[in-house]
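Below is how a single chain appears once it has passed through the pipeline. First comes the sequence as given, then the structure the pipeline wrote out for it. We keep one example in the README because the format questions we get most often are answered faster by looking than by reading.
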Amino acid sequence: MSFVRHFLLAVQFFTRIPITGRLADWVGYSPAMLRASAAHFPGVGWVVGLPAAAVFSAVWWWLPPQPAAPWVAALLSTVFSVLLTGAFHEDGLADLADGLGGSANRERALEIMKDSRIGSFGAIALVLALFTKVAVLALIAQSGGAMVAAVALFAGHVTSRLMPLFVIHTLAHVGDTPQSKSKPLAESIGRGALAVGVVWWGLAMVLVVALLPTVQWVLAVLGALLALLWMWRLLNRRLQGFTGDGLGATQQVSEIAFLFALSLTLPAAAP
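Resulting structure:
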């Protein structure tokens, strides 16, 4: 049952889904458990991605067939996912942008990232990331149809949550460990935990390929991997390791790259 407990702890930590009362008592908490729950990051992608895809599909179906319909569906599904996660990863992206944009000095950048207030770099990064995500999702819907967009939304959430596991596995934690939320992740996760995350992701990809076998999912995953490589090099070069904000930013950039790469494979307009 530890598998279920670790999964529920990941859901509790990375979403706003309430796990309270007796269920919370049964799940429990310890730094070691939170570290083990990292293996279920892609599983959280299932929890967020499936209802977000359902929201997209429902809004698309309900709206009149107008050119703005894909944009409205993409926007509302994004709003839903942000509410469901409490903007957890978006906050990490904004903090990382403020830190790295605010100072070239490593120690000063880490200090800036601790400040909960959002600065110019963070605000710009957040606005551009959200707008790009909505725009690319709308483009996918216009080019491939609502089904492709909804499935891509789900696959993007799961795939992008696999990418931070490779960062945790290969880089050192450099945050303010006495106070950092990611302190339990300071010890690198092992290959077993990484394998669990890959299984979560693999099951999702089996599902999406079964639903839409002609879509170029391989190229979309390649886009996410390229985003991971870019974020890994950025974190290693500027911080010599990762922070919780860096993990959130990696998820956001990987999700956008997944959707963008997929959009490049859908040149034909939907009927």
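The two ends are 48 Å apart (CA to CA).

See the next section for the split statistics.
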